[in-house]
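User: My instructor asked us to take a sequence, write out its structure as C-alpha coordinates, and then describe one feature of it. I'm not sure where to start. Here is the sequence I was given:
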Amino acid sequence: MYRIKIDRSRCIGCLTCVTACVVSHETESTDARNRVVIDSETRPAPIFCRHCERPECVYTCMTGAMKKNPQTGYVEYDKEQCASCYMCIMSCPYGILKYDSIRNVEIMKCNMCVHRTEDGSANPMCVEKCPMQAITLEEVRES
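Assistant: Let's start with the prediction itself. The C-alpha coordinates for your sequence are:
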Protein backbone atom coordinates (compact mmCIF):
# COMPACT_ATOMS: atom_id res chain seq x y z
CA MET A 1 0.00 0.00 0.00
CA TYR A 2 1.18 3.48 -0.80
CA ARG A 3 0.68 6.55 1.33
CA ILE A 4 1.44 10.20 0.90
CA LYS A 5 4.32 11.21 3.15
CA ILE A 6 4.94 14.85 4.01
CA ASP A 7 8.31 16.26 5.02
CA ARG A 8 7.23 19.51 6.64
CA SER A 9 10.81 20.74 6.87
CA ARG A 10 10.91 20.93 3.06
CA CYS A 11 7.51 22.59 2.56
CA ILE A 12 7.65 26.28 1.63
CA GLY A 13 3.87 26.77 1.57
CA CYS A 14 3.72 27.50 -2.17
CA LEU A 15 0.30 25.78 -2.51
CA THR A 16 1.39 23.92 -5.66
CA CYS A 17 -0.02 20.74 -4.10
CA VAL A 18 -3.40 22.41 -3.61
CA THR A 19 -3.46 23.67 -7.19
CA ALA A 20 -2.37 20.27 -8.50
CA CYS A 21 -5.25 18.66 -6.63
CA VAL A 22 -7.78 21.04 -8.17
CA VAL A 23 -6.38 20.45 -11.66
CA SER A 24 -6.33 16.69 -11.20
CA HIS A 25 -9.96 16.44 -10.16
CA GLU A 26 -11.48 19.09 -12.46
CA THR A 27 -14.68 19.41 -10.47
CA GLU A 28 -17.27 22.12 -10.83
CA SER A 29 -16.47 23.50 -7.38
CA THR A 30 -12.68 23.73 -7.94
CA ASP A 31 -12.18 22.62 -4.34
CA ALA A 32 -8.97 20.87 -3.41
CA ARG A 33 -8.95 17.73 -1.32
CA ASN A 34 -5.90 18.89 0.60
CA ARG A 35 -4.80 22.16 2.11
CA VAL A 36 -1.88 23.96 3.67
CA VAL A 37 -2.33 25.68 7.01
CA ILE A 38 0.09 27.67 9.14
CA ASP A 39 1.07 25.91 12.36
CA SER A 40 1.67 27.43 15.78
CA GLU A 41 5.30 28.11 14.84
CA THR A 42 4.12 30.02 11.71
CA ARG A 43 5.41 27.30 9.38
CA PRO A 44 3.40 25.81 6.51
CA ALA A 45 1.74 22.51 7.35
CA PRO A 46 0.26 20.51 4.45
CA ILE A 47 -2.77 18.45 5.46
CA PHE A 48 -3.79 15.40 3.47
CA CYS A 49 -6.15 12.48 3.98
CA ARG A 50 -4.21 9.77 5.79
CA HIS A 51 -6.42 6.90 4.66
CA CYS A 52 -6.46 5.83 8.30
CA GLU A 53 -6.10 2.20 9.30
CA ARG A 54 -9.24 2.59 11.42
CA PRO A 55 -11.04 5.42 9.60
CA GLU A 56 -13.62 7.25 11.68
CA CYS A 57 -15.20 8.60 8.48
CA VAL A 58 -16.03 5.03 7.44
CA TYR A 59 -17.34 4.03 10.88
CA THR A 60 -19.66 7.02 11.08
CA CYS A 61 -20.96 6.89 7.49
CA MET A 62 -24.56 5.73 7.71
CA THR A 63 -25.02 5.03 4.00
CA GLY A 64 -21.79 3.21 3.18
CA ALA A 65 -20.54 6.02 0.96
CA MET A 66 -17.19 5.88 2.76
CA LYS A 67 -15.48 2.52 2.51
CA LYS A 68 -12.06 1.13 3.29
CA ASN A 69 -10.78 -0.82 0.30
CA PRO A 70 -9.15 -3.95 1.77
CA GLN A 71 -6.94 -4.43 -1.28
CA THR A 72 -5.50 -0.92 -1.60
CA GLY A 73 -5.99 0.27 1.97
CA TYR A 74 -7.46 3.53 0.68
CA VAL A 75 -10.61 5.06 2.06
CA GLU A 76 -12.92 5.48 -0.92
CA TYR A 77 -15.90 7.79 -1.32
CA ASP A 78 -18.98 7.09 -3.45
CA LYS A 79 -20.88 10.32 -3.99
CA GLU A 80 -23.89 8.41 -5.36
CA GLN A 81 -24.39 6.75 -1.96
CA CYS A 82 -23.71 9.87 0.09
CA ALA A 83 -26.60 11.41 2.04
CA SER A 84 -24.62 14.63 2.71
CA CYS A 85 -25.06 14.22 6.45
CA TYR A 86 -21.47 15.38 7.07
CA MET A 87 -20.85 12.78 9.77
CA CYS A 88 -17.57 11.94 8.02
CA ILE A 89 -16.51 15.58 8.14
CA MET A 90 -17.30 15.84 11.83
CA SER A 91 -15.55 12.58 12.67
CA CYS A 92 -12.27 13.09 10.79
CA PRO A 93 -9.64 13.56 13.52
CA TYR A 94 -7.41 15.51 11.13
CA GLY A 95 -10.09 17.90 9.89
CA ILE A 96 -9.29 17.28 6.25
CA LEU A 97 -12.71 16.35 4.90
CA LYS A 98 -14.99 19.13 3.71
CA TYR A 99 -17.99 19.53 1.42
CA ASP A 100 -17.86 21.14 -2.01
CA SER A 101 -18.23 24.89 -1.97
CA ILE A 102 -20.96 25.18 -4.63
CA ARG A 103 -23.67 22.63 -3.86
CA ASN A 104 -22.54 21.56 -0.38
CA VAL A 105 -23.36 17.93 -1.13
CA GLU A 106 -20.18 16.23 -2.31
CA ILE A 107 -17.41 15.37 0.12
CA MET A 108 -13.98 16.48 -1.04
CA LYS A 109 -11.98 13.33 -0.36
CA CYS A 110 -8.52 12.36 -1.62
CA ASN A 111 -8.65 9.33 -3.88
CA MET A 112 -4.87 9.16 -4.42
CA CYS A 113 -5.59 10.26 -8.02
CA VAL A 114 -6.32 6.68 -9.04
CA HIS A 115 -8.38 8.13 -11.91
CA ARG A 116 -5.09 9.16 -13.55
CA THR A 117 -3.96 5.59 -14.20
CA GLU A 118 -5.48 2.83 -16.27
CA ASP A 119 -4.90 0.17 -13.61
CA GLY A 120 -6.29 2.26 -10.76
CA SER A 121 -2.99 2.58 -8.94
CA ALA A 122 -2.07 5.66 -6.93
CA ASN A 123 -0.63 8.58 -8.88
CA PRO A 124 -1.22 11.74 -6.82
CA MET A 125 -0.63 14.88 -8.83
CA CYS A 126 0.35 16.75 -5.64
CA VAL A 127 3.34 14.40 -5.28
CA GLU A 128 4.27 14.83 -8.92
CA LYS A 129 4.12 18.63 -8.86
CA CYS A 130 5.64 19.49 -5.46
CA PRO A 131 8.70 21.59 -6.36
CA MET A 132 10.44 20.88 -3.05
CA GLN A 133 9.78 17.11 -2.98
CA ALA A 134 8.17 17.70 0.39
CA ILE A 135 5.35 15.36 -0.62
CA THR A 136 6.31 11.85 -1.63
CA LEU A 137 4.58 8.55 -2.19
CA GLU A 138 5.88 5.88 0.11
CA GLU A 139 5.11 2.17 0.27
CA VAL A 140 4.05 1.03 3.73
CA ARG A 141 3.38 -2.42 5.06
CA GLU A 142 0.19 -3.26 6.91
CA SER A 143 0.74 -4.15 10.55
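For the description part of your assignment, you could build on this observation: The chain has a mean pLDDT of 94. Try explaining in your own words what that tells you about the chain.
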